[in-house]
Design a protein that fits this description.
This protein has seven helices and 13 strands. By secondary structure, it is α+β, with helices and mostly antiparallel strands. The protein has a seven-stranded mixed beta sheet. A three-stranded antiparallel beta sheet has the order 4-8-7. The longest helix is centred in the C-terminal third of the chain and has 17 residues.
């Protein structure tokens, strides 16, 4: 995979336009489908309202966001209402995030967030545009990257280093079971996965997971059996080989093949 970015046609004067064009060119030439491993993804015609790229082999769709700065806790996206409708209909694309170094004209980081990690809890509305704006009152949204479990951020390139393709595909497959779940069921699973992430260790006891009950109760005020729900989600994650039960109320994270 060549990490160099090629400059675009001189007719593009705006820096943002040039960045959009040369990052899209790089994805078209060098990115493969992280779902099926197909050698290339194809670009949709410009101004398509939802996705930027698609895989002609497995039909996965991708939206691309790029920046010359590091991606932070939030990524700016489009209209809030449209995003909520796409999530409800389960037809949102996967998200590609590309970071580049303008000085060296090279890709530094490239990761994919599979669509099954998108639930309402990771999307927040932005402030409405001012009354003086051309689209006064329009409300955009932010994607909360820090609310996505680490398993949902699949790195293809990290700090200029390419990850093995087999590792990328394995990490995608590890969480593909989430697509079979309803939005509500996925929400619970993702929140428990995020809580397990925050423990920052490979092995943990069920009591460690129960410690997040007050936090989860705030997210799900209508649920009166949060500890039982946590235990149920751990069992689901165990059955899907995301976790390994090692006895005496202890679990171990099952890592995707590197």
């Amino acid at each position: 995979m060549n990490l160099s970015l090629e400059d675009c046609d001189e007719r593009y004067r705006s820096a943002s336009q040039r960045a959009r064009v040369f990052t899209e060119q790089w994805v078209t030439r060098w990115a493969y489908c992280p779902s099926c491993g197909f050698a290339a993804v194809e670009k949709y015609p410009n101004n398509r309202p939802v996705a930027d790229f698609f895989c002609s082999n497995c039909s996965e769709q991708f939206e691309l966001k790029s920046t010359k700065a590091k991606f932070g806790a939030r990524v700016t996206d489009g209209a809030y209402d449209s995003m909520c409708c796409r999530l409800a209909a389960n037809d949102n694309p996967n998200l590609m995030l590309l970071g580049y170094d303008a000085a060296t004209a090279s890709v530094t980081n490239f990761l994919v967030v599979p669509k099954h990690f998108f639930v309402r809890n990771i999307v927040e509305p932005r402030k409405p545009l001012a009354v003086t704006a051309r689209r006064a009152g329009w409300i955009g949204c932010n994607i909360l990257l820090n609310a996505i479990p680490s398993a949902g951020k699949i790195f293809v390139i990290t700090n200029g280093r390419e990850h093995p393709k087999r590792s990328v595909l394995s990490k995608w497959r590890q969480t593909a079971f989430l697509r079979e779940k309803s939005p509500d069921a996925r929400g619970w699973l993702l929140d428990v996965m995020r809580c397990v992430d925050s423990l920052n260790r490979n092995e943990f006891a069920i009591e460690d997971a129960y410690a997040f009950a007050p936090e989860l109760q705030l997210l799900y005020p209508g649920n009166k059996h949060v500890r039982e729900k946590i235990r149920q989600q751990l069992q689901v994650l165990r059955d899907q080989n995301y976790l390994e039960f090692i006895g005496q109320g202890r679990y171990r994270l099952s890592r995707a093949d590197e």
